[in-house]
């Protein structure tokens, strides 16, 4: 599920990875962009929108400033355009950009986004790894696991909940869920051991009323 993403239509193809990848791209991604976005909304640079999706999917689980994204795309325009296109991709259920947690909403909007695919099949199909290679690369597999958790939380969040990340160098927390009454910090571990939780500890230190959660070994 973490690698193949769980789209029902592609389930029968997971033992033929080339066919599975082609199905995800041709039958799921392309119609979502061409029909759900381009036919419903005016997009001045459709090619840029598609480039942003591919780049963002490959960076899922990572924080990347839109200024740096702009340097990797052709005819990228300005950062406001990229932010708007990222919102369109999020509304279509493809790719979102999580904001950094701040108490003030304006500061959240100005932060560098943390990319997160909304189904991990979109990340796997955008990368050259096959299933065995993905499992062997522990760093990449860790991003897949984190992206699966982020996708679940984004897709199930209520209108009153905000999903973000937190980072104050050298500390970082994978996800923060906030609403009017509660603040929850979530760290995701894909390895067999828990490892250090300094980011989670620091966040709770700065926000004593928050609830820390560990997803993974020991959690």
Keywords:
alpha/beta; 219 residues; 9 helices
Please describe what this structure looks like:
With 219 residues, the chain is of the alpha/beta class. Helix content is 46%, strand content 16%. It contains nine helices and six strands. The chain has helices at residues 17-38, 46-58, 66-71, 79-91, 105-109, 120-126, 131-136, 138-156, 198-206, and strands at 95-100, 114-117, 162-168, 171-178, 183-188, 211-215. Strands 2-1-3-4-5-6 form a six-stranded mixed beta sheet. β4 (171-178) and β5 (183-188) form a beta hairpin. The longest helix has 22 residues, at 17-38. The chain is globular. It starts with 16 loop residues before the first helix and ends with a strand.
Biggest sheet layout: 6 strands, mixed
Fraction of residues in β-strands: 15-25%
**Count of helical stretches:** 9
Which ranges are low-confidence, i.e. pLDDT below 50, for 5 or more consecutive residues?
none
Element-level helix/strand string: HHHHEHEHHHEEEHE
Overall pLDDT metric: 92
The helicity comes to: 40-55%
What shape does the CA trace take? globular
CA gyration radius, whole angstroms: 17 Å
Order of strands across the biggest sheet?
2-1-3-4-5-6
Structural class: alpha/beta
The number of strands is: 6
Distance from first to last alpha carbon:
20 Å
Structure in a nutshell:
46% of the residues lie in helices and 16% in strands. The protein is α/β, with parallel strands linked by helices and 219 residues long.
Set out the fold topology.
Layout (H helix, E strand, L loop, with lengths): L16 H22 L7 H13 L7 H6 L7 H13 L3 E6 L4 H5 L4 E4 L2 H7 L4 H6 L1 H19 L5 E7 L2 E8 L4 E6 L9 H9 L4 E5 L4
Parallel strand pairs: 1-3, 5-6
Antiparallel strand pairs: 1-2, 3-4, 4-5
Helix pairs in contact: 1-6, 2-4, 2-6
């Amino acid at each position: 599920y973490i690698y193949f993403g769980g789209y029902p239509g592609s389930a029968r193809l997971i033992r033929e990875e080339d066919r599975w990848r082609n199905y995800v791209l041709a039958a799921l991604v392309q119609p979502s962009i061409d029909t759900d976005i381009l036919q419903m909304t005016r997009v001045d640079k459709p090619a840029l929108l598609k480039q942003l999706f591919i780049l963002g999917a490959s960076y899922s689980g990572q924080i990347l400033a839109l200024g740096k994204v702009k340097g990797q795309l052709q005819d990228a325009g300005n950062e406001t355009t990229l932010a708007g296109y990222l919102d369109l991709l999020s509304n279509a259920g493809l790719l979102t950009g999580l904001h950094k947690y701040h108490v003030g909403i304006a500061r959240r909007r100005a932060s560098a986004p943390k990319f997160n695919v909304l189904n991990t099949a979109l990340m796997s199909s955008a990368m050259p790894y096959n299933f065995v290679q993905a499992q062997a690369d522990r760093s990449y597999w860790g991003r897949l696991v984190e992206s699966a958790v982020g996708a679940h939380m984004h897709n199930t969040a209520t209108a009153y909940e905000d999903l973000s990340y937190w980072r104050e160098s050298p500390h970082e927390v994978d996800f923060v869920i906030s609403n009017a009454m509660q603040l929850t910090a979530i760290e995701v571990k894909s390895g067999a051991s828990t490892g250090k939780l300094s980011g989670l500890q620091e966040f709770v230190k700065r926000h004593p009323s928050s609830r820390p959660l560990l997803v993974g070994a020991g959690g």
